[in-house]
Amino acid sequence: MNLSEFFGRLHPLIVHLPIGFLMIAILLEFYFRNKMSPGKRKSIIFILVLGAVGSIIAALFGWLLAEEGGFNEDTLFWHRWLGISTAVIAILALWSKYKSQRKVYIFSLVALSALLMLTGHFGGSLTHGSDYLLQPLMADNSSVNSKELDKPNDSIVVFHDIVKPFIDAKCISCHNDDKQNGGLNLSTFEHLEIGGDNGKILHSNVWESEFFRRVTLPQESEKFMPPNGIPLTYNETTLLKWWIENGAEPETSIIDSKLNDAVKNILLNEYNIDLTPKPFAESITLQALSETVISNLENKGWSISVVSPNSNLLDASPKNGVKFTSEMLKDLLAAKKHITWLKLGNTSVNNEDLKRISQFENLTDLRLNDTKITDEGLSHISKLNNLEALNIYDTTISDEGLNAIKALKKLKRIYLWKTKVTPSGISELQDNKPKLTIISG
Amino acid sequence: MKELNEHLLNYTRREFLSKASLGLGGIALASLLNPGSMYGSNLMKDENGLIGTGKAPHFAPKAKRVIYLFQSGAPSQFELFDYKPLLNKMDGKDLPDSVRQGQRLTGMTSGQRKFPLVGSRFNFKQHGQSGAYVSELLPHIGGIADDLCFIKSMHTEAINHDPAVTFFQTGSQQPGRPSIGSWLSYGLGSDNENLPNFSVMLSRGSGLKTGQPLYSRLWGNGFLPSLHQGVQFRSAKDPVLYLNNPEGMSSLNKRNLLDHLGKLNEMQYEAMGDPEIATRISQYEMSYRMQTSVPEVVDLSDEPEETFELYGPESKIPGTYAANCVLARRLIEKDVKFVQLYHMGWDQHQNLPTAIQGQCRDVDQPSAALVKDLKRRGLLEDTLVIWGGEFGRTAYNQGKMTKETYGRDHHPRCFTIWMAGAGVKPGMTYGATDDFGYNISENPVHVHDFQATLMHLLGIDHEKLVFKHQGRRFRLTDVHGHVVKDILS
Asked: pTM (2 decimals)?
């Protein structure tokens, strides 16, 4: 049994009584200032007695509580001595009222009002943290989903942007600069790394990490964190685990961390962080092609559109009803860096044209289906380093032509239906490029 | 005059009412001068709702075109995709009250005293690497299971056909809003000026000859300018009505007529500034171009025999679902943005086992063929295919129940649809229902979520594609809808 600790913990309860009594005394004094009567005077004295006794007890209990430790020393110093001053001045007020020492009395009432406010403020900072009161006013509540981060993926730091916010929301009130329950301060990474009374709380093995263990214990457990308030959600513990497994680094960005599906889904659904690789068109930056060049091409029979509002790369195909000519392709060279999709299916495109097409370095999707191209012509496209999809169905391309394709490092899909490619040609290509999807109808 | 009229047009009705000191007389005068102003549509000059003025896409689209194979009448998920062995085990036993919990029923079964569960009379098999369950009624669709994304946890708000189809198509159970295809036409514009951006085809099912009726307002433009409305292709001699020149009129005459009419209309437009006039001019021009492009696209004589083998024998008979599927592919090849098929006859309240076999014969091979065909041509890369009805059917029997026959009532609380192609994960099953197939047990997808996802795939933020009408900004998903990100590839 530890009586002094017990009484210490009564401090937050007791402390509000003298505050109330003293406030009432001040207010009554002000209210009766011009029509004081002996009866009224007596009742004010009675209230002042209660206030003075209460503040002495509160100060005593406060002293005991401070012994427990875990509080910010600076704040505690001010709270302690302002609290004691409050008790002293309360006695002074009582004495001066009783003795009708008007000047001293007025002074002590004014001093009391100030002391009550100051002591209360420091006390609040000790229990809740110094920014507790103003935080709701400071926080930017404008966005609907406050979890959404408005920055590019590569500058999202896992600790700072993902983990820290829920620590701040759910743990910081007991583990901060002012108050360190269990000797633990979670306000910065440096403090967190140091750990608490029982040493480090991070461990390379997540299951041995006190930080993770405390939030995943059964909730009835005495050791479960937070002991009261809102527990971490399942998603939050998953993210915490992910961070610790990735080495619990303070600066690692989200794209440098190893990801699993569960984490990817949480990031996508709760934080709107999309980690699927960006399409090529959005990954390269290029000056927009001038309006005049585009409208010139349109006049020459091309249908041109941007592939995405976030990119200046273009999608080109002959306009519906326009007959494709080699001349048109020459015109299109004016946009050779910008064209990323080129659809020439069912046109008269020939081998000579393919030579020109090989200059379109940012081409990712090329459709040459239903055309007269041959194996020889196809050899030109081996220079298209960024090509991801090639459609040559309904052509006379044979196994021979596939050799050119082997050089295409980024190729993901190839359409070979209705070609002269043989099953053995296909399996050879597949062996050469195990990740390539071959659609042969 | 022009400025005055434009000003009147730009007045919403509410603004007009609040400002007009002339009272009702003033309103009457305004509508006489300018009928459009009565609709209260706020048609600004640069926001006049013409093709593509919805200013989409908002981000890189995965899909550029959509084929929506609407199975009208609501196919039973229990006989097709949602395998529930418990129903076979408990065949004939009552649905426990704890499952239904007093949820609403249609007028057709609310009088029933018992709700005997009924198991599927058709067997299920797992297909492909994904191991998706598909019933023996759909062998071809089972064969492409690895290309499909099944959503087993669809749910809707409506319990009867017309409101439910309307809800799926327009985002509202009450008629009057634009259909999905109209929204897309408004938002994304057209890639082929010679064909209707939003094409619609209907077919009757052999399961139930007298299927639920469908109305043209389901592919209507609502309050969007009328050039966004769906154009129905028919199987008859005139595939699109009123397209051909009347007898005795040569093409040259028609051209002359259109040129002169166009001039008159332009003068009128200059004077009045009414965007509906601009719509009219462009529609006349399009119908002229369609005089050659439509007969070309609907003429299947240039299709190789192999096509008809793939889509099945019915694909040679105009007006069947199979033939419509071939046509859908041809329209997509020509860059039509939204092709909507409706196949009627899925409403099997009684005699389900026989009727559903007929329906499945109609749609199984052609639906699978369409996906296969698009895939081998490389079109599935940027074409989204959707297959599904307006709601699901009940786990319990409606009407007479014997070993051979039974029926199922409407069930909006869960049903299955599938999607394939652009931007959707292939070989995936999303969401699940409980063992009775009565409630959703995992990842519910509301109709508005489906619509939001569809738009997302096309590069549209469903919250941003809006049209102001009667003083309010409307969108397809009303004020709801979340993109189902988990199914995006």
From this structure: 0.73
